[in-house]
Structures are given as C-alpha cells and as structure tokens.
Backbone:
C-alpha cells in the first residue's frame, strides 16, 4: 500500500504501521474469541459507519499537526455548522441536502479562515488561538440555537438521508470517508501544496528560506480543516438526527488521539495517511467493539487512554532503538 | 554568578513588557469593576469582593502551578481529570468509613500521585510532547473515576467539611485565605528562589540549563507534582462547595486554567511570565464572569467574551514593540 518510498528514514514508519496492524489483529482476535458476532460484515459495517466521521475529522487534523499546529476548536465548529445547517433545514424543510452540506461547509470555512488568520497572520500560538475560538464558536452555537435543540421531527427526510443512505449496501458515510481519504492521500503526497505542508512543519525556517509562503500554507491548512469540520458537522447532525448545543464537545481530543495513534507527530512534519487510517480504525474498534465483549461502557475511557499511552510509549522506544542502531552503524 | 544573573534579569523585566502587562491587567480589572458597579447599585460593597472570588477561586489554585508548567514550555491538560479522580476517591473512601480528615489527605495524595505520574512519564520519555502524554493520562484519570463511581454521585459529607468551601474567618472566606497563602508561597518560589530562576532558564534554553548542571528532569517532575497537589486542593474545595461529587466534575477546567495563566502573560512557548500577572488574570476572568452573570448574560455569551479576551490579550502582547514575536510553530 505504501511501499513507494524505500528510504531508510521511512523504515521506522512502516515498522510502526506493521506494529499497529498487528495490534489491531490481536485485539480483533481477542474480541472475536469472546464474541463471534464481531467479525460479521454487518457488525463491521456498523463499526466503520460509526468511525467514519472521526476519520474525516482526523484527516484535517493530520494536516494541522503536520504543520506543527493544533486545532482545539473543531468540536465547536462541528457543533456550530451542524446547528446552522439543521436550523436552516427546520426553517425551510424543502431545502436540498446538498445546499445543507454547502451551508455547513461555508460556516466551517468561515471558522477555519478566522483560526487561520490568528495563527498565520497574527502569529498567535495555535493552541491558544484555537482554544479561544473554541469558546467563541461554542458560544455562538448556543446563541444561534437559542439554547434549544433541533430534533429529528424538525428535520426533513432528505436531510436525515445525508448520513443514513446506503449505496450498494454500504453506508454513505463510509464512502464519503474513503473518498476524502483518497483525495487527501493524493493531495498530501503528490501536490506541491501538500508537500509544502510537510516542509512548513518539519522545518519552518528553511521552508521560508526556500521561498515557501508559510503564512499562506498555514492559512490554507486551517481553512481546509474548517471546511472538513463543517462537512463533518452536517454529517454528524444528520446521522444522529439531532443538533444540540453541546454536540461533539470534547471530540477534538478523540480526533487528536486517532492521529497520535496513527503515528502523526504533534511536533510537526511527521505522519502518513496509511498510519492515520490504522490509528482511526484502532480507535474505532476500541470505541465500538468493547461493548460486544461485555466491557462496561465505564471502562471505555480508561482502556482508550491506556492504549494511547501504550502506543506513544512504544513509538518512543522503537524510535530510540532505531536511533541507537543508526549510531552503531555509523561507528563501524 | 547566579545572583548577578538574577539581578540582570530583574531590571530587564521591570523595564520591558511584563511590568506594563500587569498594569494593563489591573486597568482591565478596574474597568470590569466600574462596569459591574454600573449594573447594580449594590455591587460596590466589601461583601462583593469577598464573595465573588469564591465562584472561581477553586480553579485559581491551579493557575499558579500551571504557570510553572507553561513556563517550562510544557502543558498539562489532565488537571481537570485529576480533580475528578481525587474528588471521587475522597468521596468513596469517606463513604467506605474513612474519617473525613484522612479522606482529605487521601484526596491530596491522589492528586499528587497523578501529577507525579505525568512528571515521571515526561521526564523518562523526553521526546514525547507533554500535550499528548497528558491527553492520554487525562483520559485514563477520568476513566478511573468513571470506573469507580459509574454514573452515580457520592456525597453526604459532614457539616464541617462544607465549611471549607463556604466558611468565613471573620469577614474573609476561608478559601480566600488559603488562596493568598498559596499565592504568596508560589510567588516566592518563582521569583525569590533559585528553583524559580531555573524554571525560567529551562523555558528559555533547556540545553544550556542541562549543560550548566541544573537538574532539569527533577525540576520538571517537581513542577508536575506540584500541579497535581494543587489539583487535589482544588478537588477538596470544589467538592466542599458542591456537597457531592460525580465522575464528570471539573471537565474543561484544564482549558480555563490555561486561559487564566496565558492571559496573565505566560506564553505556552515557555520562558516568560510573572506570577502576579497570572493571579490578577484569574481575578479578571473571575470578576468578568461574575459581572456578566449579574446582568443575566447567558453563560454562552460569557464563553465568547472569555475566548475573545484570551485571543485579544495575546494579540496585544504580540503587537507590543518590546515583546519579542515568537514563532507560531513552537510550544504546541
């Protein structure tokens, strides 16, 4: 899948991905032994459906992390765009679903542009800028909705179909997630702008010296994240058929966790789409399959956290080993 | 050698940005109070200034050690979960028959242990970003609290325990006295001891500090342990004020505490800030919320105001001619 580049520095990344894959297989075997209904097509489709929004958001977050930034506001942007779209549809029930999606993406884009302005233009640290904007967007969500929910009966069937239609027996959310993953894989690996994102993250100074417009790349990245969050917001609201003020609150941490599990470095410049896919899948399995083996939902947080901690520590250990081996080779 | 360094840095501080920043914060505080007194004729009374702080002092306990963490260029987003875990364990152990005083000691110990674990992990795996490690421990601590208490609440504390959060000594709330004691202690620790100077050094140039024989790992562990201890203190007062506890208590506290410290002039890229500024900032945000609450502004609008205040304050700091612009890429 990703053996296109065989540079030595990439060996470690692929080693990590094999480890991750083995871990997923191991967990799957354990779950399957405890409950044979786990590895059925039906269950796996459910699992993927429930994970696809996480995956879509993780794609955007990976770009942000690649630049060395972070976006804490995406949970709030998901809520704001989902709320705006669902209010629009509750006011005008005949609204075309595609227009709803466009409304959501538009709101998300606006939010992303504002984030990007503060981070790229004003040079505020991403964590602070997006933390502040998280409060603002979350507050706006409550103001837009007047503190009320938009419930299923206020939404048109067409709108609810955005997140529930099946094409060839596959939920449309899964297809959308796959399409976004493919587009993003192409964008980040084979377009100039995509490579700029890596360059800005791995060495901002030299990126600027070589003539990359860092401000523009950063701004673009945050705007893209905004569009993706807006899109995910519409999907979210449509899938759950309810828009609330606290929709997706704290979800940014899940998304960051998926990225980190997939080997995306939060200090920028490191990370692959294939890893991200595996990381998202692992988090999805942890979130969705544990109830199948009668693990109480109260244990989920703990297990999720423990797996993240385990994964990052293993990453660090493997990296140390690799560095040591490199050094030893150099000595001889 | 060292004393000369302290003096040198001090005059630099006084002349440049920090000194003015505090004045700006004080001006902001006064403006907020004028605004508040315009709202209600009963506002400008001694009672207001002793009562209002009780609504935010529980968080303010964590601002000071969080400032230490930010000073190192690190971050800790697990404090909210630490508060929840210590609070839950205190309630459980009391209801299991432990005397209340011992339960409080246990609460402080649990907080300290949580902080110590963060510190040890970060000192042992220096290459891991603190954001990610504490993201994992955040999920784990909250997860343990959930496992212990499930979706229940636990309370029924003795009367004297309520006194901690609600009681007065003369006209002054007990909590305020405790806060002043801690604030003075942390202020002295940061500005009058070599430990404090080492923290500034570590935030500015970690390598140089290592080479000059400063025990950087030990300092980092100490700082995180202190933050854990103060999270325990917060848990005691918060639980006392609420009268009972749930596993989802204090969620989102980490971001509020970070916002207070950043408004106070501590940059998340480390190396700058002043304890007085952080404490004033805690009062600025606290009184702002209190005042907006008086005129019945919904808590959502308050969210927006706090978010904008956070970004505005960092913007102001960035555009100061004396303030050095730091790269947007560091310290995430």
Residues:
């Amino acid at each position: 899948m990703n053996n296109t580049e065989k540079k030595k520095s990439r060996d470690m990344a692929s080693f990590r991905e094999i480890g991750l894959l083995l871990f997923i297989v191991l967990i799957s075997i354990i779950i399957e032994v405890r409950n044979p209904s786990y590895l059925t097509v039906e269950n796996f489709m459910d699992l993927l459906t429930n994970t696809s929004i996480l995956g879509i958001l993780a794609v955007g977050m990976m770009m942000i992390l690649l630049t060395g930034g972070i976006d804490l506001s995406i949970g709030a942007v998901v809520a704001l765009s989902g709320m705006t779209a669902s209010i629009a549809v509750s006011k005008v029930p005949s609204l075309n679903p595609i227009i709803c999606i466009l409304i959501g993406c538009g709101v998300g884009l606006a939010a992303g542009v504002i984030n990007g302005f503060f981070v790229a233009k004003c040079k505020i640290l991403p964590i602070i800028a997006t933390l502040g904007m998280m409060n603002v967007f979350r507050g706006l969500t409550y103001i837009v909705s007047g503190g009320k929910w938009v419930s299923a009966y206020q939404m048109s069937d067409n709108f609810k179909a955005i997140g529930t239609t099946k094409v060839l027996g596959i939920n449309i959310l899964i297809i959308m997630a796959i399409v976004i993953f493919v587009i993003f894989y192409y964008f980040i690996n084979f377009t100039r702008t995509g490579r700029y994102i890596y360059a800005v993250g791995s060495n901002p100074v030299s990126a600027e010296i070589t003539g990359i417009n860092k401000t523009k790349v950063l701004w673009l990245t945050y705007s893209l994240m905004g569009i993706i969050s807006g899109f995910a917001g519409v999907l979210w609201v449509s899938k759950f058929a309810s828009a609330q003020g606290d929709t997706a609150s704290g979800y940014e941490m899940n998304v960051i966790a998926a990225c980190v599990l997939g080997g995306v470095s939060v200090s920028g410049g490191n990370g692959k789409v294939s890893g991200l896919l595996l990381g998202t899948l692992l988090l999805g399995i942890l979130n969705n399959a544990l109830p199948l083996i009668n693990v109480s939902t109260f244990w989920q947080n703990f297990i999720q956290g423990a797996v993240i901690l385990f994964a990052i520590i293993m990453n660090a250990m493997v990296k140390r080993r690799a560095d040591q081996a490199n050094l030893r080779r150099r000595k001889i | 050698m060292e004393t000369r360094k302290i003096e040198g840095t001090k005059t630099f501080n006084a002349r440049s940005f920090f000194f003015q920043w505090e004045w700006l914060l004080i001006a902001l505080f006064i403006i907020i109070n004028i605004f508040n007194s315009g709202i209600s004729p009963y506002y400008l009374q001694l009672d207001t200034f002793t009562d209002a702080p009780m609504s935010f002092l529980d968080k303010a306990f964590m601002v000071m050690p969080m400032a230490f963490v930010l000073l190192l260029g690190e971050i800790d987003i697990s404090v909210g979960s630490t508060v929840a875990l210590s609070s839950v364990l205190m309630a459980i152990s009391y209801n299991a028959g432990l005397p209340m005083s011992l339960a409080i000691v246990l609460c402080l110990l649990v907080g300290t242990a949580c902080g110590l674990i963060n510190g040890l992990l970060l000192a042992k795996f220096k290459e891991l970003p603190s954001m990610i490690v504490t993201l994992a421990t955040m999920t784990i601590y909250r997860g343990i609290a959930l496992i212990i208490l499930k979706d229940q609440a636990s309370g029924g504390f003795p009367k004297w325990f309520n006194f901690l959060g609600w009681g007065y000594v003369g006209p002054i709330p007990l909590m305020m006295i405790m806060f002043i004691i801690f604030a003075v202690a942390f202020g002295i620790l940061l500005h009058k001891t070599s430990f404090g100077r080492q923290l500034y050094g570590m935030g500015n140039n970690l390598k140089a500090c290592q080479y000059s024989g400063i025990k950087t790992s030990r300092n980092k562990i100490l700082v995180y342990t202190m933050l854990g201890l103060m999270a325990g203190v917060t848990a005691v007062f918060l639980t006392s004020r609420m009268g009972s506890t749930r596993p989802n208590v204090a969620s989102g506290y980490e971001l509020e505490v970070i916002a207070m410290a950043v408004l106070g002039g501590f940059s998340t890229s480390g190396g700058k800030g002043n304890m007085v500024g952080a404490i004033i900032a805690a009062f600025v945000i606290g009184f702002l919320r209190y005042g907006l609450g008086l005129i019945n502004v919904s808590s959502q609008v308050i969210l927006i105001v706090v978010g904008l205040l956070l970004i505005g304050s960092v913007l102001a700091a960035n555009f100061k001619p004396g303030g050095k612009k730091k790269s947007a890429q560091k310290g995430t």
In short: Chain A touches chain B through 58 residues (CB under 8 Å). The first strand of chain A starts at residue 166 and ends at 167.
